[in-house]
Amino acid sequence: MPGITHLNPAGLHTNPAFSQGVRADGGSLVVVGGQNGTGGDGAVVPGGLGAQTVQAFRNVLAVLAEAGADQGHVVKLTVHLKAGEDVTAGYRAAGEVWGPHPTAITVLQVAGFARPDALVEIDALAVVP
């Protein structure tokens, strides 16, 4: 595994779910493009934000696995949620699939996505030795 250092400077809020920053030394950069909650058939999974978030994280994990990586290699996540959705369902789903792998993260609410039925999109940056 590359040298990944979680950066949580004194004086900044700390949270076990994320790091304020991450330094990655060595390895290859893996960029995971935005993943919606779509199944292998390309259709958005039913069940609302929670189900779509679970599927989107599974899709991110599949791309990481293709690169020989997993959650421990991720240095940055960006999660886009459709505005007006209950983010609690998204956070709960993230914990279910992602597990205790804190990293630098940005969570945004957006007006919508290219797919009108999508409620979430997640992208990731990872460093693989």
UniProtKB/TrEMBL annotation:
Organism superkingdom: Bacteria
Alphabetized Pfam families for the sequence: Ribonuc_L-PSP
CDD domains according to UniProt: YjgF_YER057c_UK114_family
SUPFAM superfamilies: YjgF-like
InterPro entries attached to this UniProt entry: RutC-like_sf, YjgF/YER057c/UK114
Name the record gives this protein: Enamine deaminase RidA, house cleaning of reactive enamine intermediates, YjgF/YER057c/UK114 family
Organism, scientific name: Nocardiopsis flavescens
